Amino acid sequence: MRPGIAIIGTGMVGQMCHLANFAANPACRVVAIADLRPDLATAAAKKFGIPRVYGTHRELLADSEVSAVVVVTKRRATGPIVLDALNSGRHVLSEKPMAYTTVQAASLVEAARRQRLVYSIGYMKRHDAGVARALAELRRLRTDGSLGRVVGARGWCFGGDTGRSHDNFVMTGETRPDGLELWQDGPDWMPGTMRPGYDNFLNVFSHIINLARYVLGSSPTIAESTLENTGAARITLDFDGVACTLDLVNGSEGAWREGLTIDFERGALSIELPPPFAEQEAEVILDQGGQRTRLMREGSWAFRRQADAFVADIVEQGTPLASGEDSVADIALAEAIWKRRVSG
């Protein structure tokens, strides 16, 4: 039987990146949506042909046809809603960040483990077909030794134009409502003046940190970090002796620039990521002795592949590429980086 998917939160990202992709997947049924903005929920349901609309996530979770939910709400409300969904026995895909503290994140992972549920976090870059090609190429290079050993890595994110489409979502003039349960937006030790920057750091820069862990190793240590209250940073992570320096700046003008380069003794492998909402794959560039080759791209989209993978994981009880359990490490790293700033 095809799983019944429901979307909680029907704003731009909820519609464009999630609702549209699940609605296009014949292996599932999108049976319901929930949003505190009734006009927006009704308009989105009409656009995508969704049969049922609910005003709150708790009303939606009472629907027996819902077997899995996608949570795309304001960041501080994500954790409480995910916890309700997991406790009700629903599989979950939630946008990142999954939480603001490791304690919060661990409580969600424990709820999913207790119920034996699929719990996936929206690090869609792990699902990018270009990233998959880069991983295959990296394995080859490490096996055949043609470029020598890995000597270091560099990552960057200079946030600019997000590349969003303007024709595949609807919006209304409704004000975002209050009344949602919100989790604390940082650890107890974090001053309130730092929390907006911490929020931005988790929302934007956790992607490239997560991708570096996916490519280079899941459990790096922090070698160095320079951090501003805005969330801009230069961070060096140590992956078992391989240093990866990340330059992170948000709000730059012009094109979105984000990527990761792995340096070898005699060349390099680079992943140039598309803007977050652009329907295109990452570019992979192989530098061998100064000769640069771009690996062939196809026409897939990371968000579509992420949606398809979530449905497949539900059906097959698979482990997500970006599982909740693995993603706790991103929150722990963010906490540790910001605590270094507080501690001086």
What this model shows, in words?
The structure is a single chain. By secondary structure, the chain is of the alpha/beta class. The chain is 37% helix and 24% strand. The protein contains nine helices and 14 strands. The chain has helices at residues 12-23, 38-48, 57-61, 75-87, 102-115, 129-144, 195-216, 302-316, 324-343; strands at 4-8, 29-34, 52-54, 68-71, 91-94, 119-121, 150-158, 221-227, 233-239, 242-249, 257-264, 267-273, 283-288, 291-294. It has an eight-stranded mixed β-sheet, with helices on one face. A six-stranded parallel β-sheet has the order 3-2-1-4-5-6, sandwiched between helices. α1 (12-23) links the parallel β1 (4-8) and β2 (29-34). The radius of gyration is 20 Å and the shape is globular.
Strand neighbour order, sheet with most strands? 8-9-10-7-11-12-13-14
Name the shape in a single word: globular
Q: Tell me the fraction of residues in β-strands, as a range.
A: 15-25%
Q: Could you list the spans in which at least 5 consecutive residues all have pLDDT below 50? A: none
